[in-house]
């Protein structure tokens, strides 16, 4: 039995199978341990897949032994590999760091349900990434979405409930739009397999319904990916969710939707719709720019640290979209690498929030006052992650931002204007980071409750912050994967 | 004749939908939604989708209505009248509508047997079902085997919903409320007698649908919904406590977890026997028999999870009871 | 038959729009969920409409059925899945609404918002 052959499916079914088991374990620590170990396994598997993919093997896994397009197929390439690493890595880090923090939000008898939902969210996200069938993507998108609603609703803050309801409504509308798009595609081509669709779409004479399908699918996925102006669900969801859940979802869930967006757009539509590359730019580029500026501006205005970083996510999604909307090798690889680097930076920041929140009762605007001075190590690690978010040289964020600027200068009509946007938003990022730093270091601490520091969370914070520095100096594996992914996507354009 | 009936039915659908939106009594809206589901189920049946019709009737008209009603018990019944602020909604809705209508002008005639949607994969499904699985219901063959991975995902969607409802509704209550356990209709003789007569038949029909899914319309989802419906009916008649005595919460939790595990487990056997995940043909010596065994096993898993989830969800809603 | 086909499509659009409108415009959370159900049901109707083949019958192979034309089974399978996804979403949504009612004492969106702002 060649186990490596089964890696793509194992990646999904290991967390999936563990979820019902976690449900039956009626013990907080055991359920957490089970979820963490499973997540760690998924992470190891993702790295193994990435290495195999880089050695040149490409995966097509026929489920049930039925060949595509009749059966469902899984496919893994460099693009999927990097997203698999982001998802499983974010889940592992957030789980390990989040034990104490989650224990404050969730009662003992509900903990096993929560961790089962976590595993299903993980399995759903991973399942979307490896799927190569348009409808299968829908099914796993629903698993991931429903599970994330549960995770967000785990918060003890009542404001999480209206936020999650909004998230549910908008998420379901997005998924249903996607389903309408799939239906239109199926009418015209009679298939659901992505690579089969790419071939059969060429034979369709009247392209108008295909255009409609592209519209519905793009809008549906843009809702899930929180691309400006469809980001309305994001800030409240991220700021009121349990801290560990924010660390997990902020690092990866919108990126998975973006991944599907890119994959379907490039693999299915680019070759057929005339001038699609140009249209892709015309629609996405202004949205990206608006998202970057709006998200940064809102972040500056926001007094609450956690919500501030949620707004900054809107801006950072804008960077990724800006990169890919250039439809060039450099732009795509910058965008994809930024998915990884942003996950790294935001993951570290929200893990930092977990640690800091353990030192105060509630995350009010003044709660974090002086905490950085009190615990310098934590403060510095937090700032390092923040600098990576801004894109200071020496951090991971710098590498992808530099690539992005490079791609803009390479060949774009409005390169100077776009350059100004990137620079302006970087300055704005400096401003909102400075605001947080001021709170952490230069304000007198409130009389906070002295609570034991969560050691595992601090270890994770240091580790991930350090990773931001490492990948800033030697981007190695992610850069290689992003480059491969970019050329892979470009192969499918005209 | 069918065409006239179809058009009549479709008009009724639109009218019912409008009524759902217009009424301000939520109880009425939910009941109208049940009628809407029943009407749309009949439409599906007229469009040759017997399996889908059965599912919509059991899930949409039956279970969904029960869940909405049991949730309404904890909420207010009247919708507050609202004023204004609907212009943006109207605009975005009309844009989408116009776009959709625009797309119709170009869509091919669905009904034409030579349309691409009917020529590409369908002949292969028909032929392979006859040759390699040898069961009459092509829907069950696709659902269980060709696209068994989607169905696995679907089972986990149900499981996730079950987990979610249990998680949300097991949180400690904000204020002290006494636990209300419903008395049922113990004091109403006629519904109780008729209901009692119905329960064994619903249960029997559920089991029939479960095990006959390969030959006629039906399968694990519909069966799970029907079996759950019969227990819910028992709970409505005799009170929640009696229903819980038949199938306690712990058992339901075990049922929903083990159904999902059974399905995924059957898939893993495929890997262990040296083939692909969810390849049933290695389950027995003869590949055709093996496919059938596989489908029966996974349908059983589906039925278990759906029954377990629907019943636990129902109990969770009822137990949350009325707020004072 | 073409007319009936088009009529199906229009009904699909009408119900889709009605559901969509309800989700966006109504303040009542239960109404929003009902609108979401309508919205999804419309899509089911679209898919089942695609599956219908003129002169075809339910795709169940049986020696006694002599006809060679069957309706397309694949969209029907997809909708079986989608129906189950729909009820799962509704159930979860209802649970959230029950919790919102307990936490805020209201299920009207604007009232909930104003309660958070004043707090």
Helical fraction of chain B equals over 70%
**If you average the pLDDT of chain B, what whole number results?**
86
Q: Hey, which two chains have the biggest interface?
A: B-C, 99 and 87 residues
Q: Largest sheet of chain B at a glance? A: none
Number of helices in the DSSP assignment of chain C: 4
What is the gyration radius of chain B calculated from CA atoms? 23 Å
Number of strands of chain B: 0
Taking all Cα atoms into account, the compactness measure Rg of chain C is 20 Å
Separation, N- and C-terminal Cα atoms of chain C: 60 Å
The assigned structural class of chain B equals: mainly alpha
Strand content of chain B is under 5%
Query: In terms of quaternary structure, what is this?
Result: heterotrimer
How many domain modules of chain C?
Answer: 1
Number of domains of chain B: 2
Give an overview in words.
The complex is a heterotrimer of chains A (494), B (324) and C (119). Chain A is mostly helical and 494 residues long. Helix content of chain A is 77%, strand content 2%. Chain A has a domain at 275-494. Chain A has a two-stranded antiparallel ribbon. In chain A, helix 2 (28-54) packs antiparallel against helix 3, helix 11 packs parallel to helix 13 (305-325) and helix 12 (276-301) packs antiparallel against helix 13 (305-325). Chain B has two domains: 1-77, no CATH class; 131-324, no CATH class. In chain B, helix 10 (220-238) crosses helix 11 (240-246). The mean pLDDT of chain B is 86. Chain C is mainly alpha-helical and 119 residues long. Chain C is 75% helix and 0% strand. Chain C has helices at 2-25, 29-51, 73-104, 109-118. Chains in contact: A-B, A-C, B-C. At the B-C interface, helix 1, helix 2, helix 3, helix 4 and helix 6 of B face helix 1, helix 2 and helix 3 of C.
Task: Write a compact overview of the structure shown.
Chain B is built from 13 helices and no strands. Chain B has helices spanning 2-22, 26-46, 50-72, 87-104, 116-119, 122-133, 138-146, 148-169, 189-211, 220-238, 240-246, 249-272, 287-320. Chain B starts with a helix and ends with a helix.
What key phrases describe this protein's structure?
heterotrimer; B: 324 residues; mainly alpha; C: 119 residues; 4 helices; 75% helix
């Amino acid at each position: 039995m060649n186990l490596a052959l089964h890696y793509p499916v194992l990646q999904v079914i290991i967390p999936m199978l563990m979820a019902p088991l976690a449900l039956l374990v009626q013990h907080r620590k055991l359920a957490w341990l089970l979820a963490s170990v499973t997540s760690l396994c998924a992470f190891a598997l993702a790295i193994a897949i990435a290495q195999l993919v880089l050695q040149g093997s490409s995966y097509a896994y026929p489920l049930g032994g039925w060949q595509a397009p009749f059966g469902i197929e899984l496919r893994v390439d460099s693009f999927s590999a990097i997203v698999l690493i982001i998802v499983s890595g974010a889940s592992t880090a957030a789980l390990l760091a989040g034990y104490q923090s989650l224990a404050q939000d969730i009662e003992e008898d509900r903990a096993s349900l929560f961790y089962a939902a976590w595993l299903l969210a993980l399995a759903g996200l991973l399942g979307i990434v490896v799927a190569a069938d348009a409808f299968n993507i829908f099914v796993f998108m629903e698993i991931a979405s429903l599970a994330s609603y549960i995770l967000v609703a785990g918060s003890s803050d009542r404001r999480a409930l209206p936020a999650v309801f909004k998230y549910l409504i908008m998420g379901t509308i997005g998924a249903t739009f996607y389903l309408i798009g799939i239906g239109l595609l199926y009418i015209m081509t009679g298939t659901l397999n992505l690579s089969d669709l790419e071939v059969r779409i060429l034979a369709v004479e009247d392209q108008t319904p295909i255009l409609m399908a592209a519209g519905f699918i793009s809008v549906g996925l843009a809702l899930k990916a929180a691309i400006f102006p469809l980001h309305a669900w994001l800030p409240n969801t991220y700021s009121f969710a349990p801290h560990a859940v924010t660390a997990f979802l902020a690092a990866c869930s919108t990126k998975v939707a973006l991944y599907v967006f890119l994959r379907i757009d490039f693999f299915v539509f680019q070759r057929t719709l005339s001038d699609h590359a140009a249209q892709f730019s015309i629609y996405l580029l202004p949205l990206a720019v608006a998202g970057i500026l709006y998200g940064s501006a809102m972040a500056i205005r926001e007094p609450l640290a956690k919500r501030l970083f949620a707004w900054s996510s809107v801006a950072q999604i804008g960077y990724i979209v800006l990169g890919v909307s250039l439809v060039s090798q450099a732009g795509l690889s910058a965008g994809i690498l930024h998915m990884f680097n942003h996950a790294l930076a935001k993951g570290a920041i929200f893990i930092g929030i977990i640690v800091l929140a353990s030192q105060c009762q509630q995350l009010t605007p003044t709660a974090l006052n002086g905490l950085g001075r009190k615990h310098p190590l934590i403060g510095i690690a937090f700032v390092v992650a923040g600098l990576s978010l801004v894109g200071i040289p020496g951090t991971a964020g710098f590498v992808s931002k530099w690539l992005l600027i490079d791609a803009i200068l390479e060949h774009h009509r409005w390169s100077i204007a776009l350059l100004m946007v990137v620079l302006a938003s970087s300055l704005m990022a400096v401003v909102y980071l400075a605001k947080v730093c001021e709170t952490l270091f230069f304000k007198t601490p409130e009389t906070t409750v002295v609570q034991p520091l969560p050691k595992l969370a601090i270890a994770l914070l240091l580790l991930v912050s350090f990773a931001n520095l490492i990948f800033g100096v030697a981007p190695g594996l992610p850069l290689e994967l992003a480059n491969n992914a970019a050329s892979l996507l470009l192969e499918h354009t005209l | 004749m069918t065409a006239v009936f179809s058009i009549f039915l479709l008009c009724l659908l639109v009218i019912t939908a409008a009524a759902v939106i217009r009424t301000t009594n939520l109880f009425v809206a939910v009941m109208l939604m049940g009628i809407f589901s029943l009407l749309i189920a009949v439409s599906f049946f007229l469009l040759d989708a017997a399996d889908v019709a059965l599912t919509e009737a059991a899930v949409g008209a039956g279970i969904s209505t029960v869940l909405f009603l049991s949730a309404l018990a904890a909420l207010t019944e009247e919708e507050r009248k609202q004023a204004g602020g609907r212009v943006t909604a109207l605009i975005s809705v009309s844009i989408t509508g116009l776009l959709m209508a625009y797309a119709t002008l170009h869509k091919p005639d669905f009904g034409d047997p030579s349309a691409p949607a009917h020529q590409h994969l369908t002949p292969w499904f028909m032929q392979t079902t006859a040759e390699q699985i040898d069961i009459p219901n092509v829907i069950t063959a696709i659902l269980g085997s060709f696209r068994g991975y989607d169905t696995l995902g679907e089972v986990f969607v149900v499981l996730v919903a079950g987990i979610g409802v249990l998680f949300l509704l097991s949180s400690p209550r904000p204020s002290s409320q006494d636990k209300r356990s419903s008395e049922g209709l113990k004091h109403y003789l006629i519904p109780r007698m008729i209901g009692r007569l119905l329960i064994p038949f619903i249960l029997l029909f559920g089991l029939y649908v479960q095990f006959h899914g390969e030959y006629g319309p039906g399968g694990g989802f519909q069966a799970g919904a029907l079996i759950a419906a019969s227990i819910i009916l028992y709970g409505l008649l005799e009170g929640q406590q009696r229903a819980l005595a038949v199938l306690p919460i712990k058992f339901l939790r075990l049922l929903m977890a083990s159904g999902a595990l059974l399905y995924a487990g059957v898939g893993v056997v495929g890997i262990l026997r040296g083939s692909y995940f969810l390849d049933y043909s290695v389950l027995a010596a003869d590949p055709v028999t093996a496919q059938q065994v596989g489908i029966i096993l996974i349908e059983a898993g589906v039925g278990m999870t759906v029954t377990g989830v629907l019943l636990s969800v129902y109990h969770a809603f009822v137990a949350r009871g009325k707020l004072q | 038959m073409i007319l009936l086909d088009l009529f199906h499509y229009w009904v699909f659009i009408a119900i889709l729009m009605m559901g969509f409108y309800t989700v966006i415009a109504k303040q009542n959370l239960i109404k929003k969920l009902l609108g979401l159900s309508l919205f999804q049901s419309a899509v089911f109707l679209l898919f089942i409409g695609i599956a219908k083949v003129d002169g075809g019958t339910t795709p169940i192979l049986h020696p006694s059925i002599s006809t060679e034309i069957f309706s397309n089974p694949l969209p029907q399978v997809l909708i079986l899945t989608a129906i189950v996804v729909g009820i799962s979403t509704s159930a979860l949504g209802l649970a959230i609404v029950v919790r919102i009612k307990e936490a805020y004492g209201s299920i009207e969106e604007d009232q909930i918002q104003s309660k958070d702002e004043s707090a």
